[in-house]
Amino acid sequence: MNALNLTPTILALVIILYFTVLYFIAHYTSKDANNLDFYNASKTSPWFVVAFGMVGASLSGVTFVSLPGSVLNNQFAYLQMVMGYAVGYAVIMYVLLPLYYKRNLISIYGYLNQRFGKYSQKTGSVFFMLSRIIGASFRMYLMTMVLHDFIFVHFGVPFWLTLLVSLVLIWSYTVKGGIKTIIWTDTLQTLFMIIAVIVAVMTIATQLNFDFSSVYNEINSSQHSQIFFFDGGWEDKNNFFKQFLGGAFIAIVMTGLDQDMMQKNLSCKNLKDSQKNIRWFFVILVIVNVIFMAMGAFLYIYAEKVGLSLPVNEAGAIVTDKTFPTIALNHMPAYLGVVFLVGLLAAAYSTADSALTSLTTSFCVDILGKINTPTVKRMLIHIGFTLVLFATILIFRYVLEASVIQNLFRMAGFTYGPLLGLFAFGIFSKKSIRDMYVPYIAVLAPILTYIIDIYSEQLLFGYKFGFELLLVNGALMYSGLLIITKSNESNYRSANK
Question: For the segment 312-351, what is each residue's pLDDT rounded down to a tens digit?
């Protein structure tokens, strides 16, 4: 029996059991929760729990289905970027975290206020929220689409209802405890994701009568296992140096300058524990990424050995994002369908619940400027962002074309460039700036970056930017801040204030 033969009753029981566990955790962790518990768990989170839970939030639901599928075209090239993370996380441990803890920040964009002023803080917060809303909506859309198109459509459940119920459930178990609850639910959901991948590999190995050594040998000798790419020039997207450099700066901006990820770090008891968290988070992340990519290679090995036809697009190319769900749901025993469903739920919700909490925190602290926001008002803000995600995802589903959504998601990544420029200027320069002009520079930098990206091949003799475009964006922001530097430097705000 495959997963599509699962009855609605069995499927409902799986989902009910899944959320029962989450609600049990939420109930336990949110007792007598106050604003500080919601924002930073009153700095009581065990670092090892934070480290493990951050893996699930970092991977997201997109990674759960996309990373294994990407092995077909990119082999293990993604590991080059993961290696670059080591440099980025070192910067976070020894530069950013000491800065945040020294200033006792709840929102990391509070640093921009202390260093430059309120316009810089609100600019950083708005750019974060814009990126997080689009990014979380995109990821949630893809995961809900997989859940709906592969499973719930067979039971007559419309997409919008699948989405609405999902978001309401996420809101209800995060609205009271916030990050104090997220720390523990993300840990559980990371565990579910890893279990799903391991069970998938074991199940496929059983189908092929392989033992562990056979699985390793098959993956190692396959055409999918190449890690290092030194032969291609800088125009090659898998070029080692591009990937490594991109990984370093992606780690800095998407973890160290991202309220969603740093909110978890700042819930640790002290700086030393937070640094331990980052160190072990990186170790676990490397291991998990290797497991995901190994499973991806094994999926294609299985398809080749049994002559399985994978889903293709109109051009006849394999739709790699559907490789894992297709094999797990259509060609494996029913129990793997259940495990895949739980893993998919974990992957989707570990991104959305964390996003809702960080969005609420940033709005209360950075935009409203109130740490002690009344509980009822904070809950209303929380449900407001839930509705924003719901509306955005519906627009993705029913209004925009796939290419537009992809470009919108890509453009959301441009918002990290201004954050990189702002924080770099604040840390490495002691100059004071005209704070009121920061929003204009922050808007102009991504626009110029986008134009440079469009015409790069004509201007740079065929060179096409990859992740290093982030550096261009950050450099433009930094340059813009130099332009609005105050002439009377005796009035600057000290970077060490």
Answer: 877 778 888 788 888 887 888 888 878 888 887 787 777 7
The Cα 364–Cα 380 span in angstroms is 11
Domain ranges in the chain are: 3-416
Which residue pairs, CB below 8 angstroms and at least 24 apart, start in 13-18? 14/338, 14/341, 14/342, 15/341, 15/345, 18/342, 18/345
Give the helix, strand, coil percentages of the chain, each rounded to 5: 75, 0, 20
The CATH number that domain 3-416 falls under is 1.20.1730.10
Amino acid (one-letter) located at 441: I
Cβ(221)–Cβ(323) below 8 Å: no
Q: Concatenated DSSP letters for 337-367? A: HHHHHHHHHHHHHHHHHHHHHHHHHHIIIII
DSSP 32-87: T--HHHHHHGGG-B-HHHHHHHHHHHHHHHHHHHHHHHHHHHHTTTHHHHHHHHHH
CA triple 357-368-126, angle to 5 deg: 65
- Asked if residue 477 lies in contact with residue 442, where contact means CB atoms within 8 angstroms, the answer is yes
Q: How far is CA 487 from CA 115, 334, 431, in A?
A: 17, 70, 9
- Please tell me the pTM assigned to this model: 0.86
Q: Would you tell me how many other CB atoms lie within 10 Å of the CB of residue 120?
A: 26
pLDDT (tens digit, 9 = 90+) per residue, 156-206? Answer: 889 999 899 889 888 988 888 888 888 988 888 888 888 988 898 899 898
